[in-house]
């Protein structure tokens, strides 16, 4: 604290962390500030009297208290507007929202009211003097699907202006399915981006679409804020959308058999706390479990139908299942984090994967029958979008690798609201 001319500076409080964003209350008698704990990667809101007495933590029992920071009082002193972050259910996505805390004598029991709610993030609020507007920094999630041209060693847009992830080409290469960003809805379009059709509602978030071999259906994972990931199927024309299973489990990573008569997926059973790989037979309507698949996840069916590649629970072992012998073998061992978004080559001879931890971030591959991986190319300084299930990659119809470049914008916004 110091006088207005900078004289008589003196310390009034020492916090267990870094102090920032200190703000006087409108009457000048209190100070609210944020504390950052770098070891725990948390922030919190505190208040102290002007003379340095009565320090206490705000929002002590609030669910998002460890992400709250950077607040400002409204001009009339009735509310304290601040930011806090929430993780979108069943995803890795984080959205920062603005909240208003009533400034009353009973503020210890007061609960914040949410002012903004995704998909944009807002932070660093600065209430205007008219008590009707708030200035804030807004981040608009925008991405660009790019593919890597090996000969030129550069990333080029797949379809200019397409803000999407999880792009999947149909077997004939004429169509794509994708998940729009930031909405999280599933769409279908021509390979050039024309004839776009939304296939899912705005109330659900889709991921990992896969075309049936005949190009008539699309399987995908679907989730809502109150639920878990569920396996769903929709017609390429938007018809007959339905969930595949009614079981109390999470299903993800759908794979069609080469003949289109079966669908393989990874399952996590909440009641039994276990992972396994299962197959739905559309002709018999039976669901079977791949023997020995307990604890394995991220299954990938080879295009020739002979193998399944999957990962061990700790993510260090790449496992290979041979349908002929009905047995699993350890194909490759790597540090955890090496096997991300594995994808087979069209001839079923190689499995490619996105490696984040072995040296520079790169695409690597391993050949069937061998136990050593080889480098395909390094990604360099590509700024990737985190995605609902981590940074995504796959292969385009021409065999090139696709990625999602983060093109999010950050600008100053004026928000108009009415507070009681």
Overview of this structure, please?
- The chain is mostly beta strands.
- The chain has two domains: 130 residues, 6 Propeller (Neuraminidase); 264 residues, Neuraminidase.
- It is 0% helix and 49% strand.
- It has no helices and 35 strands.
- The protein is elongated.
- The relative contact order is 0.10.
SS field, number of helical segments: 0
CATH topology name of the largest domain: Neuraminidase
Summarize the amount of helix as a percent range: under 10%
Q: What's the CATH C level of the largest domain?
A: Mainly Beta
Q: Mean pLDDT score, rounded?
A: 92
Number of domains: 2
Number of strands: 35
Report the portion of residues in β strands: over 45%
**Could you state the CATH homologous superfamily of the largest domain?**
TolB, C-terminal domain
Sum this structure up briefly:
The protein is an all-beta fold.
Can you lay out the helices and strands and say which pair or pack?
Blueprint: E1 18-24, E2 30-37, E3 42-49, E4 56-57, E5 69-73, E6 79-87, E7 94-102, E8 113-114, E9 121-127, E10 133-140, E11 143-149, E12 154-157, E13 164-169, E14 175-180, E15 186-190, E16 197-198, E17 205-211, E18 217-223, E19 230-235, E20 242-243, E21 249-256, E22 262-269, E23 274-281, E24 287-289, E25 297-301, E26 307-311, E27 317-322, E28 327-333, E29 340-344, E30 350-355, E31 362-367, E32 373-378, E33 393-395, E34 401-406, E35 409-416
Antiparallel strand pairs: 1-2, 2-3, 3-4, 5-6, 6-7, 7-8, 9-10, 10-35, 11-12, 11-34, 13-14, 14-15, 15-16, 17-18, 18-19, 19-20, 21-22, 22-23, 23-24, 25-26, 26-27, 27-28, 29-30, 30-31, 31-32, 33-34
